[in-house]
Design goal:
Layout: H1 11-14, E1 32-43, E2 46-58, E3 64-66, H2 68-79
Antiparallel strand pairs: 1-2, 2-3
This protein binds zinc ion.
């Protein structure tokens, strides 16, 4: 079971290019550790939950950073024939 963050920050800001190894969190200045996480991933207007994705996770605030190569590999995997573990139905709501 991996720790999940449900940050509502703009995803684009979190997908920074990194070269691996420890890095410093741009939000809180904490240090990151490599982890395998479950990632929400949009591709061609469809939402996927991808498990076992390599990321750098801030030990202080939980911010997650993904390798550009990992994101490209996810795109390629999803575009090709791939096994599906489970289908989920999600609610979209507005918090007002
Ligand atoms: Zn942080």
């Amino acid at each position: 079971m991996t720790a999940l963050t449900t940050s509502l920050r703009t995803p684009k800001r979190r997908w920074r290019l990194i070269n691996g190894g420890m890095m410093i969190c741009e939000f809180c200045g904490g240090q990151t550790v490599p982890r395998k996480v479950r990632k929400q991933h949009w591709l061609d207007g469809r939402l996927y939950l991808v498990e076992n994705v390599a990321a750098e996770v801030c030990t202080d605030c939980g911010e997650r950073y993904f390798h550009a190569t990992a994101l490209d590999q996810i795109d390629e995997m999803l575009k090709a024939e791939h096994p599906v573990k489970e289908h989920l139905s999600v609610e979209v709501v507005s918090f007002a």
